[in-house]
Amino acid sequence: MTTAARHPALADALAGLPRVVDLLAARAEEHDRDACFPYQGIEAVHEAGLLTLTVSERYGGAGCGLADTVRVLTELGRGDPSVALVGALTLLTHAQQALAPYWPEAVYADLLADSVRGPALIGVLGPDDHRASPAPAGPAAPAAETTARRDGQDWRLTGRAPRVAGAEALAWMVVSARTGEEPGQTALFLVQGDAPGVQIEPTWDQLGLRATASHDVLFDDVLVGPEAVVHTSAPVLDRSWLDLALPAVHLGVARAARDWLLAALRPGPQDGRLHAALGGIEVDLVTAEELLHSLARRIDEGDPEGPARTAAARIVATRAAIGAVEQAVALSGSAGLSRAHPLERHFRDVQHARGHGAGTQDLLAEAGRLALLRGGRRANGA
What we know:
- Keywords: Flavoprotein, Oxidoreductase.
- The protein contains twelve helices and eight strands.
- The protein has helices at residues 3-6, 8-15, 17-34, 39-47, 66-79, 81-99, 105-117, 239-265, 272-300, 310-332, 342-350, 360-379; strands spanning 121-125, 145-151, 154-161, 170-178, 186-192, 198-201, 216-224, 229-230.
- The strands form two sheets. A four-stranded mixed beta sheet has the order 1-4-5-8.
- β2 and β3 (154-161) form a beta hairpin.
């Protein structure tokens, strides 16, 4: 039995997904040009029940699994990847609370209450591999440096978090900060987006995903009570969910590019070379989608071998998404690079797939180390 069959809220949300995608697509070009945050799009996602799908059933939610989350994010990415990426961290944070709770119950109850009143977006401000920031770090990027000091029973946060997706609209932030109590020791601080001392510095001016408004967040002596501090070294977000959910957004971008290309070209029955080129795009996208969906199902089912394969799936899906859009641009000629058509925007947006979390070389190196480790075990008869 599918998750949709188990919980009516999930079935209703998935049934309304096509309408939401159409609404997002209708405004995506406007938000890209203005680089303004898509409040209406986020509101539409919230009203459809899509923003809280991964809230656990024990908290009254639908308990959406990874496979359905991948499906939702792929579709939202077809409509507007900026909305999809901003919503992804909220979905992943609720999923992590369902898998291995780390939010204190009282604080999480406040978050759920906020989610009833309106879109309660969550930002994760910490290691790059645990974020959905659409821009890679670089020499010109400000260093992520947030520190916390004790103030009686409370804490005070000071510092900066760069490139925070949806910074201006976040209801809550999960902030990783050095406590200074021991060398290298950190803790997680659950901060409300409108807390005194939280400031947004408008620094976001990137090639694509402009509507994510991924500005810097500054903390100026922000007070955090002891009930909202998590002293843990556990990862903020589950690696498997990150590896599969974020590339799904970019596969959605590639699908939108493919759809535009098919409508624009309309090849005749004798265009064999063009058919083959379109077939190449389709094969790459289908392969990547099937890989993401099959692994997501395995993880939902508790397959212990599944998580070891998600980094590879992330690489394959990212390459497929970027390659498909680049091929679409090549086939469309100058029209594909004209701002009069959405393909130019899709091309810019999909380039940011390279900037999410660990880089491809790091993921490949990790895969190589694991392969060597498994090979050594087999050679020793383990």
